[in-house]
Amino acid sequence: MRIDARLREGVIAIADAAAAAILDVYRGDFDVVRKDDESPVTAADLAAHHCIVDGLRALTPGIPVLSEESPPEVVARRRQWDRLWLVDPLDGTREFIKRNGEFTVNIAYVQDCVVRYGVVQAPVTGTVWHGGPGLGAWRRDAGGEREIRVRAPATEPLRVAASRSHRTGRSEAFITRMGRTEAIGLGSSLKFCVLAEGGIDCYPRFGPTSEWDTAAAQAVLEGAGGQVVDLDGRRFRYNCRDTLLNGEFIALGDPELPWRRWAAA
To answer: What number of H helices and E strands is found in the chain?
Structure first.
Protein backbone atom coordinates (compact mmCIF):
# COMPACT_ATOMS: atom_id res chain seq x y z
CA MET A 1 0.00 0.00 0.00
CA ARG A 2 1.26 3.45 -0.87
CA ILE A 3 1.67 5.76 2.12
CA ASP A 4 0.58 8.97 0.38
CA ALA A 5 -0.79 12.27 1.69
CA ARG A 6 -4.40 11.14 1.36
CA LEU A 7 -3.79 8.06 3.49
CA ARG A 8 -1.79 9.97 6.10
CA GLU A 9 -4.45 12.64 6.50
CA GLY A 10 -7.15 9.97 6.68
CA VAL A 11 -5.43 8.10 9.49
CA ILE A 12 -4.72 11.30 11.40
CA ALA A 13 -8.40 12.24 11.12
CA ILE A 14 -9.37 8.83 12.52
CA ALA A 15 -6.93 9.26 15.42
CA ASP A 16 -8.39 12.71 16.13
CA ALA A 17 -11.92 11.29 16.17
CA ALA A 18 -10.85 8.54 18.56
CA ALA A 19 -9.24 11.16 20.80
CA ALA A 20 -12.51 13.08 20.92
CA ALA A 21 -14.34 9.91 21.98
CA ILE A 22 -11.77 9.32 24.71
CA LEU A 23 -12.10 12.86 26.04
CA ASP A 24 -15.87 12.51 26.25
CA VAL A 25 -15.29 9.76 28.81
CA TYR A 26 -12.27 11.41 30.46
CA ARG A 27 -14.24 14.53 31.38
CA GLY A 28 -16.81 12.58 33.41
CA ASP A 29 -17.00 9.69 35.81
CA PHE A 30 -16.10 6.25 34.45
CA ASP A 31 -15.81 2.69 35.69
CA VAL A 32 -12.67 0.56 35.43
CA VAL A 33 -12.98 -3.13 34.53
CA ARG A 34 -10.15 -5.67 34.82
CA LYS A 35 -9.52 -8.00 31.90
CA ASP A 36 -8.38 -11.60 32.32
CA ASP A 37 -4.74 -10.48 32.45
CA GLU A 38 -5.64 -7.90 35.14
CA SER A 39 -4.97 -4.97 32.80
CA PRO A 40 -7.56 -2.20 33.11
CA VAL A 41 -10.10 -1.22 30.47
CA THR A 42 -12.62 1.63 30.44
CA ALA A 43 -15.44 2.88 28.24
CA ALA A 44 -12.89 5.18 26.60
CA ASP A 45 -10.81 2.20 25.36
CA LEU A 46 -13.88 0.65 23.79
CA ALA A 47 -15.24 3.88 22.28
CA ALA A 48 -11.87 4.61 20.66
CA HIS A 49 -11.60 1.01 19.44
CA HIS A 50 -14.91 1.15 17.58
CA CYS A 51 -14.12 4.59 16.16
CA ILE A 52 -10.75 3.45 14.79
CA VAL A 53 -11.87 0.08 13.46
CA ASP A 54 -14.84 1.60 11.63
CA GLY A 55 -12.73 4.44 10.29
CA LEU A 56 -9.91 2.25 8.99
CA ARG A 57 -12.33 -0.18 7.35
CA ALA A 58 -13.86 2.72 5.46
CA LEU A 59 -10.48 4.26 4.57
CA THR A 60 -8.73 1.05 3.47
CA PRO A 61 -11.28 -1.69 2.70
CA GLY A 62 -9.67 -5.10 2.60
CA ILE A 63 -6.89 -4.36 5.08
CA PRO A 64 -7.68 -6.06 8.41
CA VAL A 65 -7.46 -4.27 11.74
CA LEU A 66 -5.99 -5.79 14.90
CA SER A 67 -6.71 -3.80 18.05
CA GLU A 68 -5.95 -4.42 21.69
CA GLU A 69 -9.70 -4.62 22.15
CA SER A 70 -10.34 -6.99 19.21
CA PRO A 71 -12.28 -10.16 20.06
CA PRO A 72 -10.37 -13.47 20.29
CA GLU A 73 -11.58 -14.69 16.90
CA VAL A 74 -9.93 -11.70 15.21
CA VAL A 75 -6.69 -12.22 17.11
CA ALA A 76 -6.71 -15.90 16.07
CA ARG A 77 -6.73 -14.95 12.36
CA ARG A 78 -4.00 -12.36 12.43
CA ARG A 79 -1.10 -14.66 11.44
CA GLN A 80 -2.83 -15.17 8.09
CA TRP A 81 -2.37 -11.48 7.27
CA ASP A 82 0.69 -10.13 5.47
CA ARG A 83 -0.51 -6.56 6.06
CA LEU A 84 -2.68 -5.05 8.75
CA TRP A 85 -3.45 -2.04 10.88
CA LEU A 86 -2.13 -2.58 14.41
CA VAL A 87 -3.96 -0.41 16.94
CA ASP A 88 -3.89 0.52 20.59
CA PRO A 89 -7.04 2.64 20.98
CA LEU A 90 -5.88 4.01 24.33
CA ASP A 91 -2.24 3.42 25.18
CA GLY A 92 -1.66 4.28 28.81
CA THR A 93 -4.97 3.32 30.37
CA ARG A 94 -3.32 3.50 33.79
CA GLU A 95 -2.32 7.10 33.07
CA PHE A 96 -5.87 7.78 31.87
CA ILE A 97 -7.22 6.45 35.17
CA LYS A 98 -4.75 8.65 37.08
CA ARG A 99 -5.93 11.60 34.93
CA ASN A 100 -2.39 12.81 34.31
CA GLY A 101 -2.93 13.30 30.57
CA GLU A 102 -0.09 10.99 29.50
CA PHE A 103 -2.01 8.60 27.26
CA THR A 104 -2.23 8.27 23.50
CA VAL A 105 -4.02 6.80 20.50
CA ASN A 106 -1.71 4.53 18.47
CA ILE A 107 -2.35 3.44 14.87
CA ALA A 108 0.30 1.60 12.83
CA TYR A 109 0.40 0.08 9.37
CA VAL A 110 2.42 -3.16 9.23
CA GLN A 111 3.38 -5.04 6.06
CA ASP A 112 5.51 -8.20 5.88
CA CYS A 113 6.28 -7.93 9.62
CA VAL A 114 7.71 -4.41 9.25
CA VAL A 115 6.04 -1.26 10.54
CA ARG A 116 5.68 1.19 7.64
CA TYR A 117 3.75 4.14 9.05
CA GLY A 118 2.41 5.23 12.41
CA VAL A 119 0.27 7.90 14.05
CA VAL A 120 0.42 8.73 17.75
CA GLN A 121 -2.15 11.21 19.04
CA ALA A 122 -2.18 12.71 22.55
CA PRO A 123 -5.85 13.48 23.27
CA VAL A 124 -5.38 16.00 26.10
CA THR A 125 -3.06 18.29 24.11
CA GLY A 126 -4.24 17.35 20.61
CA THR A 127 -0.64 16.86 19.50
CA VAL A 128 -0.04 14.34 16.71
CA TRP A 129 3.22 12.65 15.79
CA HIS A 130 3.32 10.68 12.56
CA GLY A 131 5.83 9.18 10.16
CA GLY A 132 7.62 6.05 9.09
CA PRO A 133 10.94 4.62 7.95
CA GLY A 134 11.99 6.23 4.71
CA LEU A 135 9.15 8.75 4.95
CA GLY A 136 10.29 11.16 7.66
CA ALA A 137 8.52 12.15 10.87
CA TRP A 138 6.43 15.15 11.89
CA ARG A 139 4.85 16.77 14.91
CA ARG A 140 1.52 18.54 14.43
CA ASP A 141 -0.01 20.79 17.09
CA ALA A 142 -1.83 24.11 17.45
CA GLY A 143 1.23 25.90 16.08
CA GLY A 144 1.24 23.90 12.84
CA GLU A 145 3.35 21.00 11.61
CA ARG A 146 7.11 20.59 11.60
CA GLU A 147 9.50 17.83 10.70
CA ILE A 148 11.30 16.25 13.65
CA ARG A 149 14.65 14.50 14.09
CA VAL A 150 16.37 12.65 16.90
CA ARG A 151 19.24 14.19 18.86
CA ALA A 152 22.33 12.62 17.36
CA PRO A 153 25.05 12.68 18.35
CA ALA A 154 23.87 12.64 21.95
CA THR A 155 25.78 14.67 24.53
CA GLU A 156 25.98 14.39 28.31
CA PRO A 157 24.06 14.42 30.45
CA LEU A 158 22.18 11.74 28.55
CA ARG A 159 18.43 12.10 28.84
CA VAL A 160 16.67 8.81 29.48
CA ALA A 161 12.96 8.03 29.59
CA ALA A 162 11.61 6.47 32.76
CA SER A 163 8.17 4.90 32.74
CA ARG A 164 5.52 6.36 35.04
CA SER A 165 3.92 2.98 35.80
CA HIS A 166 6.39 0.24 34.85
CA ARG A 167 9.84 1.00 36.30
CA THR A 168 11.86 -2.08 37.21
CA GLY A 169 15.10 -2.89 38.96
CA ARG A 170 16.71 -3.69 35.61
CA SER A 171 15.65 -0.33 34.21
CA GLU A 172 17.18 1.42 37.20
CA ALA A 173 20.41 -0.57 36.85
CA PHE A 174 20.59 0.27 33.14
CA ILE A 175 20.20 3.97 33.87
CA THR A 176 22.87 3.80 36.57
CA ARG A 177 25.35 2.24 34.12
CA MET A 178 24.69 5.08 31.66
CA GLY A 179 26.65 7.43 33.89
CA ARG A 180 25.61 11.07 34.07
CA THR A 181 21.95 11.16 33.12
CA GLU A 182 18.77 13.13 33.42
CA ALA A 183 15.77 10.89 33.98
CA ILE A 184 12.51 12.10 32.43
CA GLY A 185 9.25 10.45 33.52
CA LEU A 186 6.71 9.88 30.78
CA GLY A 187 3.76 7.58 30.21
CA SER A 188 2.60 5.53 27.20
CA SER A 189 4.17 5.92 23.75
CA LEU A 190 4.95 9.57 24.47
CA LYS A 191 8.44 8.36 25.38
CA PHE A 192 9.11 7.35 21.78
CA CYS A 193 7.70 10.62 20.45
CA VAL A 194 9.84 12.81 22.69
CA LEU A 195 12.81 10.64 21.68
CA ALA A 196 11.89 11.21 18.01
CA GLU A 197 11.93 14.98 18.41
CA GLY A 198 15.25 15.05 20.27
CA GLY A 199 13.92 15.60 23.80
CA ILE A 200 15.51 12.43 25.18
CA ASP A 201 18.25 10.07 24.05
CA CYS A 202 17.28 6.58 25.17
CA TYR A 203 14.33 4.54 26.39
CA PRO A 204 15.14 1.09 27.85
CA ARG A 205 12.23 -1.24 28.47
CA PHE A 206 12.66 -4.48 30.39
CA GLY A 207 9.04 -4.95 31.45
CA PRO A 208 6.19 -6.44 29.40
CA THR A 209 4.61 -4.66 26.45
CA SER A 210 2.47 -5.80 23.52
CA GLU A 211 2.96 -5.18 19.83
CA TRP A 212 0.19 -2.56 19.65
CA ASP A 213 1.97 -0.61 22.42
CA THR A 214 5.08 0.05 20.33
CA ALA A 215 4.36 -0.27 16.58
CA ALA A 216 3.04 3.23 15.80
CA ALA A 217 5.62 4.98 17.94
CA GLN A 218 8.44 2.88 16.46
CA ALA A 219 7.37 4.06 13.00
CA VAL A 220 7.57 7.69 14.12
CA LEU A 221 10.95 7.15 15.78
CA GLU A 222 12.43 5.39 12.75
CA GLY A 223 11.11 8.15 10.50
CA ALA A 224 12.99 10.63 12.70
CA GLY A 225 16.26 8.69 12.43
CA GLY A 226 16.07 6.56 15.57
CA GLN A 227 15.70 2.84 16.12
CA VAL A 228 14.08 0.20 18.31
CA VAL A 229 16.07 -3.01 18.79
CA ASP A 230 15.92 -6.11 20.95
CA LEU A 231 18.83 -7.00 23.21
CA ASP A 232 20.53 -8.81 20.31
CA GLY A 233 20.42 -5.62 18.24
CA ARG A 234 17.67 -6.79 15.89
CA ARG A 235 15.03 -4.38 14.64
CA PHE A 236 11.63 -4.91 16.24
CA ARG A 237 9.19 -6.77 13.95
CA TYR A 238 5.44 -7.32 14.14
CA ASN A 239 2.82 -10.03 13.57
CA CYS A 240 5.45 -12.65 12.78
CA ARG A 241 5.42 -14.69 16.01
CA ASP A 242 2.86 -16.79 17.83
CA THR A 243 2.73 -14.31 20.69
CA LEU A 244 1.77 -10.63 20.60
CA LEU A 245 3.98 -9.91 23.61
CA ASN A 246 7.16 -7.97 22.93
CA GLY A 247 10.52 -8.90 24.31
CA GLU A 248 12.85 -6.46 26.02
CA PHE A 249 13.98 -3.54 23.90
CA ILE A 250 16.07 -0.40 23.71
CA ALA A 251 14.80 2.66 21.81
CA LEU A 252 17.58 5.02 20.73
CA GLY A 253 18.00 8.38 19.09
CA ASP A 254 21.73 8.09 18.46
CA PRO A 255 22.56 4.55 17.19
CA GLU A 256 26.17 4.99 18.37
CA LEU A 257 25.24 4.99 22.04
CA PRO A 258 26.89 2.00 23.82
CA TRP A 259 23.60 0.47 24.91
CA ARG A 260 24.90 -3.13 24.95
CA ARG A 261 27.30 -2.26 27.76
CA TRP A 262 24.54 -0.57 29.73
CA ALA A 263 22.21 -3.54 29.23
CA ALA A 264 24.77 -6.07 30.52
CA ALA A 265 23.60 -7.95 33.59
So the answer is: 8, 14
Segment 176-181 long-range contacts (CB within 8 Å, at least 24 positions apart): 177/261, 177/262, 177/264, 178/202, 178/262, 180/156, 181/157
Distance CA 110, CA 91 (A): 18
Domains, the chain, with CATH or none? 5-143 (3.30.540.10), 158-263 (3.40.190.80)
Q: Is the dihedral of CA 102, 131, 151, 236 positive or negative?
A: positive
Kindly provide the b/e burial profile for residues 213-224, where b requires at least 16 CB atoms within 10 angstroms of the residue's own CB.
Answer: bbbbbbbbbbbb
The pLDDT tens digits of the residues spanning 199-235 come to 999 999 988 899 999 999 999 999 999 999 999 999 9
Label residue 61 by pLDDT band (50, 70, 90).
very high
Q: Are 166 and 185 in contact (CB under 8 A)?
A: no
Instruction: Return phi, psi of residue 15, to 5°.
Output: -60, -40
Whether the pTM exceeds 0.90: the reply is yes
